[in-house]
Design brief:
Layout (H helix, E strand, L loop, with lengths): L1 E2 L4 H15 L8 E7 L6 H20 L8 E7 L4 H13 L5 E4 L3 H14 L3 E3 L14 E3 L4 H14 L4 E7 L2 H13 L6 E8 L7 H8 L6 E5 L3 H12 L6 E3 L6 H7 L7 E4 L15 H15 L5 H20 L4 H9 L4 E2 L4 E2 L15 E6 L2 E4 L2
Parallel strand pairs: 1-3, 2-3, 2-4, 4-5, 5-6, 7-8, 7-9, 9-10
Antiparallel strand pairs: 11-14, 12-13, 14-15
């Protein structure tokens, strides 16, 4: 069940009437799940599968009789990738819609704009964005499911080190995600014996990045290129890289972990490596992998419903939603404080992002091992051994 901006009042009244008629167990009315997602705009490749995943699994729970005997209603808003809108919609979710939990935002910028409001309102909030600052330092009511930009950088640098690539050019986007990724990459590079011999940036609306890439290409010290961004920018960089005849190994961040990147970059994406949850290689996971069944079940459910490929961003949403469902069941209540405590106590939860073990000092519950390293080969994802 879903409520959009245009039909929220009518849908809420209808849902309330239907639940009230269902019997005493549902007398309290529906449980309201709030979401602020970037369904349109430059981050739509994030928000679109995130929204579809929430709708899919909320419908599944409702078809099975609801959660603790109550139906779930999704109240969602589209921030178009704008942090200011995310802040305004979060205020609406809290003050007008009276939601029991918030899942989103899609981007680090949107999430950071939402955090002060949920902290003040004391409502559980599970972010779908990558920035490490979302959970470091720990904020009592805030959690996240994707691994951080720092973990992505560490996974990439570990592979570079293994390949003997120690002189690296960093090319990052001047968005919240790219800015944070650049910062974290610079912080952890030395840990892996990596020296950043070039440090260039590009804007999220740039239509050509050949100037920055030409500078990198002309630097004889550079052995590999690491791009930190999301949306169309990294695909543009990849195309420009190929057009310039650059041969050094090219790495991307988890910000492009979707089939959309391969479609946008085309043949230029051949050989690109990036860290990702195992969702994109579900059929290649060994039989004993503890995430295999969860990943395959999600792929089947999503592709059957929407007839389109899955993405890591939808997978992170599945993990967020199921962590909340699991916490509600363990709490035996929708009481926000009890659910918050149960989320924080999540242990051994098999999600698509990884095996989640949260604690009072860790509101993500993943380590670097959760990130698999993938390579694009013949237009598809392969697992780097």
């Amino acid at each position: 069940m879903s409520i959009t901006r245009r039909n929220s009042l009518g849908a809420a009244l209808a849902a309330g009437f239907a639940v009230a008629m269902a019997g005493p167990a549902a007398a309290q009315g529906p449980v309201r799940i709030g979401a602020v997602l970037s369904v349109t705009g430059p981050a739509s490749f994030l928000g679109d599968p995130e929204l579809k995943t929430l709708q899919l699994y909320i419908d599944q729970v409702n078809a099975q009789g609801g959660l603790l005997g109550r139906k779930l209603v999704l109240v969602h808003y589209d921030d178009g990738g704008e942090a200011g809108k995310a802040n305004g919609f979060t205020k609406r979710l809290l003050d007008n819609d009276h939601v029991d939990v918030i899942i989103g935002g899609s981007t680090t910028g949107s999430t950071m704009a939402m955090i002060p409001l949920v902290d003040r309102a004391q409502v559980p909030f599970i972010s779908l964005a990558g920035g490490v600052e979302i959970v470091e330092p720990v904020k009592k009511w805030v959690f996240k499911t994707p691994y951080t930009d720092r973990m992505a950088a560490e996974r990439v640098f570990a592979d570079m080190k293994q390949r003997g690539l120690t002189k690296v050019a960093l090319l990052s986007e001047t968005s919240g995600f790219g800015i944070s990724g650049r910062k974290q990459s610079k912080l952890v590079a030395a840990k892996y014996g990596i020296t950043l011999v070039a440090d260039e940036t590009y804007g999220p609306k740039d239509t050509d990045v050949t100037a920055q890439l030409t500078k990198i290409k002309s630097n004889p010290a550079v052995q590999a290129l690491f791009v930190f961004g999301f949306g169309q920018g990294p695909a543009l960089v990849t195309k420009n890289y190929a057009q310039l005849g650059m041969k050094m190994p090219l790495y991307q961040s988890h910000g492009v972990a979707s089939e959309g990147f391969i479609k946008l970059a085309g043949a230029a994406a051949e050989g690109v490596r990036l860290p990702s949850a195992p969702l994109l290689i579900a059929d290649k996971l060994p039989a004993g992998d503890p995430q295999k069944k969860v990943v395959e079940d999600y792929v089947t459910a999503y592709t059957t419903k929407y007839h389109e490929p899955v993405s890591g961003f939808g997978g992170d949403t599945y993990t967020a939603f199921e962590i909340w469902v699991d916490a509600v069941k363990r709490a035996g209540s929708f009481d926000k404080a009890k659910v918050r405590d149960a989320i924080e106590q999540t242990k051994g939860f098999v999600g698509i992002s990884g095996i989640v073990n949260m604690s009072p000092t860790d509101h993500m519950g993943l380590d670097v091992s959760a990130a698999r390293l993938l390579e694009i080969h013949n237009g598809t994802w392969t697992l780097v051994k």
